[in-house]
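seq as requested:
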Amino acid sequence: MVIDPDSVLNAVQDHAGGHLLDDHVKLALIKDIRRRMTPQPLKIRADVEITCFEFDGVENIRAALKAAEATSTVQCEVKASLVASPLYVFTTHTADKVTGINAVIDAIAAASVS
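struct tokens:
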């Protein structure tokens, strides 16, 4: 329907063989159907505990969070936020579940290496 709407909407006819739908009605229907059929973005979240017991532990944690956010792409922007002192959350919003999960996994890997 979304790819070729004319093939479906041209089949709608009255009993005399004329078309029931005007062009402006067709365009409104196509617009509404496309809007409703677009996939909703998913929110993917990972809870991560980050600790560092070295001398500059806070700076190392900050660098790890920046490294995690640096893995963001145009399709999946990864955000890191603090929940409670050792607990951080990495989130992303995307329409593709696999891409979002991979982006969060890459962010976790980047944070653990730093």
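The chain has a mean pLDDT of 86.
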